[in-house]
Amino acid sequence: xxxxxxxxxxxxxxxxxxxxxxxxxxxxxxxxxxxxxxxxxxxxxxxxxxxxxxxxxxxxxxxxxxxxxxxxxxxxxxxxxxxxxxxxxxxxxxxxxxxxxxxxxxxxxxxxxxxxxxxxxxxxxxxxxxxxxxxxxxxxxxxxxxxxxx
Length: 150
Description:
By secondary structure, the chain is of the alpha+beta class. The protein has helices at about 10-65, 80-85, and strands at about 75, 105-110, 115-120, 145-150. Strand 2 and strand 3 form a beta hairpin.
């Protein structure tokens, strides 16, 4: 009688099943991380816009109107740097992804050379935004969120 000695180890099927499970878990983890990162950047964008809104309201409180930057056209909020910094805001916020989609500002409701309204615009990643700027169209099709006052 010939007895075969059994060796301990994993079969090819067991190794394949374990590999597939690890790949699936990794894929789910990477996808979840990417989604969380987008939502985190969008939360920062919302916070940035609120800081800008607050600074613009303080400026209006002092001068009675909003800054005339861009003459009623869309401009990057970095153009507000000399107007709002350092009196009303410590620094002008910028998009967390860099300069691809800078926050935009547009003065509105002109009367007598002064502007009594504004619209701020940005691009959200994880959700579709809404244009609350009324009849004012956003800077281009990449921008999907607008905040207007009044």
